[in-house]
Every structure is written in C-alpha cells, then in structure tokens.
Design goal:
By secondary structure, the protein is mainly alpha-helical. It contains 15 helices and eight strands.
C-alpha cells in the first residue's frame, strides 16, 4: 500500500501542477539565444489542493490522520526507487557533458529541462514540498493520537513552523528562480533523487524520532526560544533572498525597505554590498541554519539535531563553491566585495 500511496501523491501533484492555473513569469536563467526562460508558477495552489484533500479525507474518517506513518518505511523505499529511475531516465538520453558517466549521473546533464508548462526543477521542488508536508502531518497526528494533545506541544510547534517554512517558500516561488539551483545546477541524482527521496523523508528527521516516543515535552520557555530563533533565521534568509531578488529585478532602486541597495559596479556587472549582503557574503545561509536550529529545539529528541547538522554540511561547501563561481564571474569586483565583506556566513566569525 505504501507504494500506491507514494505513486498517488507524486501523480496527483504532477497532474495538478500541469492542469491548475498559475502565472507565467520570466526567470533569471537564459536559453541559448539569450532569452530568459519562462516558468508557469502554481506551486502554492497545488500544495493547497493536495493538503486540503488529505485533511478533508481524514476529517471525514475516510483515511486515518496518521495513515502515512504506518507506511513510512515503504514510502521511503519507494521514493528511493522512483528517485533512481528518474535519475537514469533524465540523464541517460541527454547528450554527455564530457565528464565521466558517474559524474553525469550524479550532477546531471540537462541544465533546465522544460516541456511546455512543465519545468523539471520546479516540479521536483514542489513534489518534495508536498510529500514533506504530508509526512510532517502524519508524524504529528500519530504523536497526538498516541500521547494526547497535552503531551504533544513540541511536535505541534515543530510541525507548525515547518509548515510555515514550506508555505512561505511556495509563496515566494518566483524568488527561487534566482538561486544557485537554477543558475548553477543540472538535473541528475543530486537534484532529482534529492527532491523525490531525500528532501521529503530526511528533512522531517525530527518527526521520525519524535512521532512514536514520549520524550518530555519542551518547556514553554524552550518553545518560545525555538519560535524566536526560527523567525530570527527566517528574517535573515528571506530578507537576504528578497533583497537580492529586488536588486536583480529592479536595478534602478536605491533602497529596499530599510536597506540601501548599495552596489559595486564595473560596466554591466554589479554586486550587492548593502543591507544584509554587507553583513556576510551568505547571510541567507546563516538564516537557514538558525531556522533549522529553531526546529530542532522545538523537539526534545536529540535526533532532531541531525537536520541543522545536515544544513551545515550542505551550506558550508556550497558557500565555498559559490564564492569560487562568483570570483570567476565577477573578477576584481568580487575581490573588492571580499575585502569589504570578509565574512563568508557568520558576520565577524567566518
Ligand atoms: P544565493 O541565493 O546566495 O545565490 C548565489 C548566487 O547569487 C551567486 O551565484 C550569484 O549569482 C548571486 N550573488 C551572490 N552574492 C551576490 C551579491 N552580493 N550581489 C549580487 N549577486 C550575488 O544562494 P543559494 O541559491 O544557494 O540559496 C538561496 C536560498 O536557498 C538561501 O536562503 C539558502 O539558504 C536556501 N537553500 C535552501 C536549501 C534547502 O534545502 N532548504 C538548500 C540550499 C539553499 P549571479 O551572479 O549569477 O546572480
């Protein structure tokens, strides 16, 4: 049954992604002729329909609130298999990049595959987000059903914060088009298997540990600290990502909210050095790590800390890579940015 559940979630998400109305926007990435790629964005709508359907079915007693919890291992195994099939199907028919086959399989060959309305990257992030939300709801529901509302404050706060994270990510779906994944990554195992298997089932690792275990519920003070840390991180990450998005899309603006859009300029090339981007060269990564810490603090189980640890492992090498990429792209301008803003992620520390 777990196999059928996962295939149903993936298929429903795909069908809704294709048929629901959305808006067409131009992205940041350009095609071979220099025109910006266009994207049909309806992620939040699709997410809302799938989650509302799940909630409606559970509320009417058609399915148990924690039905996916019972199938969790089958779901993971199926997602791993689907992710592998997807990887081979998207990589092998495409022209080789010149790297060894293993590298092509891992990193991918196609940069931004699109078929009509369907953009592979947007769909992959969407299906990952939908499945992750369903797993979060299943973990929380199981805990409440077994241990009651009173003993489940931690996992409820955790689920609410994580759900906010997913909904707001889809709300700002367009901003995502201006990130490293679209600019610098191809579609292979890393992105494809990552979104189909790893993202929905590992990001909720705290839920896996907490759902069935009666750890003492975190104190109200600890939960308040978790919420405060999460939103402090969110302000840095969302603030920085939006500030850069405005900088790219409205180059004439001199301010964005409280922040000066100060730029280092060399001909056509511009690097943002004002506001949040003047604190560190990847302050958004610090924000993301703080959000993950907030989520871990909301749960008493120490296994929840694997999530922020994973972020450190992901974002530190990514900062080093992106810094190299930007140094090659911007040359002396990037050197100047490095001099003005020496910290990579944590202001004044690193
Ligand atoms: P960035 O959004 O920081 O994008 C990096 C690119 O932005 C650079 O390659 C460069 O591209 C441009 N850029 C960087 N600095 C400047 C500057 N000062 N001025 C102008 N342009 C600049 O990184 P990511 O795409 O990695 O991350 C985006 C968000 O997604 C972050 O909040 C991150 O934490 C989050 N994230 C979340 C993950 C998750 O699993 N939840 C995974 C990875 C990231 P160019 O010059 O070509 O414009």
């Amino acid at each position: 049954m777990g196999v059928l559940w996962l295939l149903a979630i993936y298929s429903a998400t795909f069908v809704l992604y294709v048929v629901l109305p959305g808006r067409w926007v131009e992205g940041y990435v350009r095609d071979a002729s220099g025109r910006p790629l266009r994207y049909h964005l309806d992620g939040l709508f699709v997410f809302g329909v799938v989650i509302a359907t799940y909630v409606a079915l559970a509320a009417r007693g058609v399915i148990a609130w924690d039905v996916l919890y019972g199938y969790r291992w089958e779901l993971v195994a199926t997602a791993i298999a689907v992710g592998l099939v997807f990887t081979f199907a998207i990589v092998l028919p495409a022209p080789p990049t010149g790297k060894p086959l293993a590298a092509d399989l891992f990193l991918g060959r196609l940069e931004n595959p699109q078929w009509g309305r369907v953009d592979a990257k947007m769909f992959l992030y969407l299906v990952g987000a939908v499945t992750l939300e369903l797993m979060l709801l299943a973990f929380a529901a199981h805990h409440v059903l077994v241990f009651s509302w009173d003993g489940s404050r931690g996992i409820i706060v955790y689920t609410a914060l994580f759900s906010f994270f997913l909904v707001e990510y889809l709300w700002f779906e367009r901003v995502h088009l201006y990130t490293y994944d679209f600019v610098a990554e191809r579609v292979g195992f890393k992105l494809g298997w990552g979104c189909l298997a790893f993202y929905p089932f590992f990001y909720c690792i705290g839920g896996w540990f907490a759902a069935g275990s009666l750890d003492p519920d975190p104190s109200p003070l600890r939960l308040a600290a978790a919420i405060a840390l999460f939103f402090a991180g969110w302000s840095l990450a969302r603030g920085a990502n939006l500030q850069k998005f405005m900088f790219k899309t409205r180059p004439e603006a001199t301010r964005w909210g409280p922040f000066a859009q100060t730029a280092l300029v060399d001909g056509d090339r511009r690097v943002l050095v004002g506001g949040l981007w003047g604190l560190s060269r990847h302050i958004n990564y610090l924000g993301e790590i703080l959000m993950a810490c907030g989520l871990a603090i909301a749960l008493a189980h120490p296994g929840a800390w694997l999530y922020p640890l994973y972020y450190v492992g992901l974002l530190v090498p990514r900062q080093l890579d992106d810094d190299r990429r930007c140094a090659a792209k911007y040359g002396a301008l990037w050197e100047e940015y490095r001099r003005k803003v020496p910290s990579r992620i944590i202001p004044r520390v690193w």
